[in-house]
């Protein structure tokens, strides 16, 4: 019995929130303990709120874009270079990652690009324009640990940001081939750099586990192991366009053939 309780406890601390586990346990003991626990939690939340930085009261969406380890904003910065690199292959694009609405609406603004998005986490704080994209079926929520709800070769290009940083190799082994499955011309992967700060503690419950920011050599080895090869043509064009404009991404960007 005591042995069985080891695992959930460990998972709680993996998520960086051991205190919540403790609070939940106290619930069953007495209502008074729960009241005290809630008060303590309230104070912690208040302290965290007032310590969040001098004069930066940002809403959660902004907080997400600003927190490092967010490569979704990097995707938007990289769009002009992606267009140079992929040209006509950018007809039907799928973006997979947090804040997918932002990427999809930026792509749709181009006019010539058909864009869809998969949001792997929650859409609770979605603004009205995001909700409208969801209603129209452009963006959907989907757990990327399971096969994507699309037929093979549904898109020319699949662009992934952040999402893979939150998957263990066990899930990566399933998710990565599945991303390749739905794309005909390429897979572009944005991941955080090991030097980058990880997502904020307050955002962890959303992702389930802290990001694991892996090195470029780790990813390269992993892609080879998974049978994915570098998409040489677009990679060269992307790097040429980037260096011409002095664009130096904070995130790692990998171009893979599918
Ligand atoms: C993932 O796949 C690779 C190659 O197919 C294999 O060597 C590795 O053991 C797998 N990892 C896990 C955790 O299943």
Automatic annotation (TrEMBL):
A GO BP annotation: pectin metabolic process
Segments of this protein annotated with the region Disordered: 1-20
Top-level taxon of the source organism: Eukaryota
UniProt key word Nucleotidyltransferase: no
Keywords: Membrane, Transmembrane, Transmembrane helix
UniProt GO MF annotations: methyltransferase activity
Ranges that cross the membrane: 33-50
Database matches in InterPro entries: CGR2/3, SAM-dependent_MTases_sf
PANTHER family (UniProt xref): OS01G0144000 PROTEIN, S-ADENOSYL-L-METHIONINE-DEPENDENT METHYLTRANSFERASE-RELATED
UniProt name for this protein: Methyltransferase type 11 domain-containing protein
């Amino acid at each position: 019995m005591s042995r069985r309780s080891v695992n959930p406890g460990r998972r709680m601390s993996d998520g960086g929130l051991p205190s919540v586990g403790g609070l939940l346990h106290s619930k069953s003991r007495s209502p008074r303990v729960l009241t005290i626990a809630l008060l303590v939690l309230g104070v912690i939340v208040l302290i965290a709120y007032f310590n969040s930085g001098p004069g930066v009261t940002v809403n959660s969406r902004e907080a997400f874009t600003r927190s490092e380890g967010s490569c979704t904003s990097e995707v938007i910065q990289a769009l002009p270079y992606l267009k140079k690199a992929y040209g006509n292959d950018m007809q039907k694009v799928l973006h997979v990652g947090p804040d997918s609405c932002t990427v999809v609406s930026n792509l749709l603004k181009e006019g010539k690009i058909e864009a869809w998005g998969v949001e792997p986490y929650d859409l609770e704080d979605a603004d009205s324009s995001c909700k409208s994209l969801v209603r129209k079926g452009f963006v959907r929520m989907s757990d990327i640990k399971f096969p994507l709800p699309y037929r093979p070769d549904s898109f020319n290009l699949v662009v992934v940001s952040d999402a893979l940083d939150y998957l263990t190799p066990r899930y990566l082994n399933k998710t990565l081939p599945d991303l390749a499955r739905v794309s005909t011309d390429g897979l572009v992967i944005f991941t955080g750099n090991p030097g980058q700060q990880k997502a904020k503690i307050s955002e962890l419950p959303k992702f389930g586990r802290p990001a694991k920011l892996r090195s470029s050599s780790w990813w390269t080895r992993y892609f080879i192991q998974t049978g994915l090869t570098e998409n040489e043509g677009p990679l060269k064009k992307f790097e040429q366009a980037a260096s011409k404009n002095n664009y130096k991404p904070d995130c790692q960007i990998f171009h893979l053939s599918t």
